[in-house]
Amino acid sequence: MVVSSLSIPIPNSRIPVKPINTPFFNTIAPFTSSSSSSLTRLLHATNTSLLNLPSSSSSRNRVLAYRGTELGHKSGEEPAMTIKPAVRIAERKLVVKDRTILTNVPENVIATSGAAAGAAEGVFLGAAFDQDHCSHSVSLGTLRDVQFLACFRFKLWWMAQKMGDKGRDIPLETQFLLLETKEGSHLEADDARNDNKIVYTVFLPLIEGKFKACLQGNAADELELCLESGDSDTVGSTFTHSVYINCGTDPFATIEDAIKAVKLHLGTLRLRHEKKLPRIVDCFGWCTWDAFYQEVTQEGVEAGLESLKAGGTPPKFVIIDDGWQSVGSDKMEDEKEEQGLLRLTGIKENDKFKKKEDPSMGIKNIVNIAKEKHGLKYVYVWHAITGYWGGVRPEVEEMKGYGSAIQYPKLSKGVLANEPGWKTDAIALNFPNNGYIACMSHNLESLYCSKQTGIVRASDDFYPRDPVSHTIHIAVVAYNSVFLGEIMLPDWDMFHSLHPAAEYHGSARAISGGPVYVSDAPGKHNFELLRKLVLPDGSILRPRLPGRPTKDCLFSDPSRDGVSLLKIWNINKHSGVLGVYNCQGAAWNSVERKNTHHQTKTEAITGYVRGRDVHFISNVASDSNWDGHVAIYSHRVGEVIVLPYNVAMPVSLKVLEHEVYTVTPIKTLAPGFSFAPFGLINMFNGGGAIEGLNYEVKAGAELSDVGNGYQAEENNVGVERAENLSSEAVAVVSIEAKGCGRFGAYSSTKPRKCKVGSEVVDFEYYSASGLVTLNLLEMPREDEKVHKIEIEL
Q1: Which PANTHER family match (predicted)?
Q2: Considering the entire predicted model, what is its pTM?
Q3: pLDDT per residue over 592-610, tens digit each?
Q4: In the chain, what are the domains?
Q5: What are the pLDDT digits (tens) for 368-412?
Q6: Taking the mean position of all CA atoms in its chain, how far away is CA 179?
């Protein structure tokens, strides 16, 4: 059976129910007083399908093209449509913006306009088959010499990335496919002038009626569409909306627009920005798993909370992972028989979490201790949706009242091929509360039925004891976030702060845009590292979007090709952040079906960083006519670099090395006066500390407030004044910053003075680089929330 784990408002179990034949997810959720009633409702649920989706039959009347002609027209008749759609089938070719993507498209492939889903440039694909059946596959055409990024299920619960340039490279169970086509060679230099020559095409397999779609390649370089119902009695032969295709010149906008169209078509999901995120995303947390595994106790939980708090990095949420429930194995008739999966034997917590003085309090006791003694805001518990890994033991007295049963579904062919030894079943339930993390839900049935879930685990687990896993983990979470991040906020999982790869993992979590939490054992912490992530009040400096690979990294393979670095971008209110990682040397091995090393090179790899690597950097510039120049602060080296537009800076890293850059648009206030704030430069995402930014230019006693842009430039008055003011010109930068620590900025001239609040403070200025720093000695007052910094130039 397939389980999933959540963090949900249930204090005590992974729940037995009659499962449907769809693998779902693990969850982590907060403990609340309503847990018992929620659990009872969950246990009584039976065989409830979430797939209330448009049926294939109801969609047939929207078919525009079939076997190359419009439905309703005889062969040879001209269709009524006169405007060429951006994506279309013509002469047995799939054409995208007049570029051929697929050739030899079979005649039974059906194309349907995406206009009904609000996407004039998109198209749905399906196919017609001669006979009804529970599974079908059809070639969509031949794919050659087109670079792609595929996200595919390499395990039942998890996706990973694969890159290539021909159909045979596309793996089984591909659930997301992004293509890049260029004019000329794929080896063109990456230059902004060539951006308009690149077209991105995204393929999104969907759920149509009771059938789920996925993509795969074959030895003939054909891109195949696979359709399965998972039930031999559920059959069909005509499919019109099985894959959605969209195209554009901006890969991230193209993907976002495609998911929007899918949302309008299916009506079963909401986008990430439409969902309420649990407040844990802005707090530092701790998970018990790698600290204790299944031996977790109430005393251990308390020890871990106390240990982190004492070091000045207090967690504000905790996840009590596997080990708190009442479980047991099936009775074995033969003592030599191998013990099977443990199953839930009761809905209450086990004895380790019962207070000796008052056992009836149960897990509520540690919840009270965590919140009242250690200042936590949220307590989550790990929970498998079927009760436990092996489900429940239906014959146990405490389970008999819930009508529990075990049912074995039919798994998809692609999953069985990728993971042939897999033998579990699944259950899918939709929780109405956003306060949980969907931990094992990389299947379309979950993703495209997500109206509530705000956070999704981005990858397989963090494995502290597996040295081959660390580079793979960073690459996988980044590329999976390209797809997952449109629907939910990706969670890049826990890590250890005291570990050979701690900085590598920790810096990535800081720029991920998701929650930040560790699984350290009590007393085993690197507080110097943690203070780069966590403020003294337990909050974090979280960027605004899911972290994703930069545009020039989308189709390179930073785990396998031996030459590429992985660059991950994100954005703050007034700056960008860019992480660069060497992830080479290890990857998922589809033959051995495990992560393996494939090269042992130790020399550094050189890549290049540009300001425009931060995709939306122009959106945070204070000038609408910003010239593209940025100031960059290097976290590891501590250097300031001024990069003009489209100028590249080299960076060289060995395997498991990284660098994090704060990237800020330079504001030119007047000739000789340029400025760019970096934020708290001792933290990985220091730019996330800046909540407000305002620039002013003063002429003698007259003050011209230019707000978020140098408005005086537009009428030439301000420029003329500034040129004539010489030493009397004064520029004032006002900044609102949260947190405490060393605040840094780039300034083309030495500041005249710096103030924090009403107090003039000392500062340092490094004329060679333009770095100016001052110290914010303590957190802002509770009633103010931010420090008000004023820098006069």
Answers
A1: GALACTINOL--SUCROSE GALACTOSYLTRANSFERASE 6-RELATED (PTHR31268:SF5), PTHR31268
A2: 0.86
A3: 888 898 887 779 999 999 9
A4: 5-48+278-330+341-545 (3.20.20), 57-267 (no CATH), 556-792 (2.60.40.1180)
A5: 999 999 999 999 999 888 888 888 888 888 887 887 777 666 666
A6: 20
